Amino acid sequence: MLFYFHFQRRLENMLRLFHQQHVKFTKFSKFLSFPMRQINTGYESVDKLADKATFGKIDSIIQWYEDKFGLSEVRHAQEDAIKARQKCMDLQKKRREHVKEYLEIQKEMETIVKEIMKTERGTDRYVELAIKENDIIKRKNDIKPYLEMMEEEEKLAFDYYNSKVSESHEKERLRTENFKLYYLCWSIAAVALGLMTNFIYNRHKNKEFRDIVLSSTGNSEDYKRMTTQLINIVQEQQKEIRQFFSDVTGSQKDLGNLQEEVKTAVKSKEIDNTAEVLKVIKEDQESLLRELNEVKKVVAVQAAKAHSDHVVYVGPEVRDLLSETESNIQRTVKIGYALTISSVFCVVGLTVPIVLKLFKGD
């Protein structure tokens, strides 16, 4: 009997331990928020909106999601484990009732044995107690095989419950591993898609750069033709410049004569006319200086052309166009470089923590 009670206590402790583990596992499964087959958020408008958005196939979509990621198998395994636990608890309850009845019979038998020991043999009381003892022994013999059978069934139920809990844990572990694999594949696909998008974007920008350069090269022919026309115009103006130099020389002589005449006029005229004459002379000199500066510019252009045939005069319009093209190219290159660097940093910042989290030791 001591061995039997010791075994019973150990069995109850093991059942209690497995029950606690199953409760923890059930809480963990609820924490994972497994989707239910029938959507029911508690808000009728949300349920109707989800039903309309999926054309009435929300249950099919959820079922496909559960089957794809192994949630259905995990749920079925949990349900089987719960049923096995309930069956084991029912058998344990019945066994306890029979054990209680067996102990009561044992106690009653001990009481009758004590009374028989005190009763004298040959009396009616002794015969009555002997009959009761015989009935109790029959009841004890009847309940003992049933109790042993209940113990065997409880062992089998406990083993079945243990196997179902292990199976549920194993399926949950496999589901987690598969989810990690899917997550890793999705991460790699996202990184590849980002790199491909960046490659296409850079290729498009490089094509724009080539188009800009080719258009600039094609326009350079027009610029060269326009520059040749400008040079021809300058050459035509050289003749006028030479004539202008001769006129300037004559005007300088006339200016000297004019100064002598002015001096004579100053002496002969009144002092009030002196300021007016000086003003006229100053304006004439400023006009002459401006013409000389223009002549110097034209001569510098002609000298540059004489030194090298490859030197092209670039006007303000051409210079502005080239500056604008250069600034557009620099701005596009900077934008592409910044986007490339940002994409690389984002990919590295997302991939490295994910890989470390997936492959670190449990």
UniProtKB/TrEMBL annotation:
The chain crosses the membrane at residues 181-201, 335-356. Keywords: Coiled coil, Membrane, Transmembrane, Transmembrane helix. It comes from the Eukaryota. The keyword Transmembrane helix applies. This is Uncharacterized protein LOC111108797. Residues 74-108 form a coiled coil. InterPro entries: CCDC51 (IPR037660). The keyword Membrane applies.
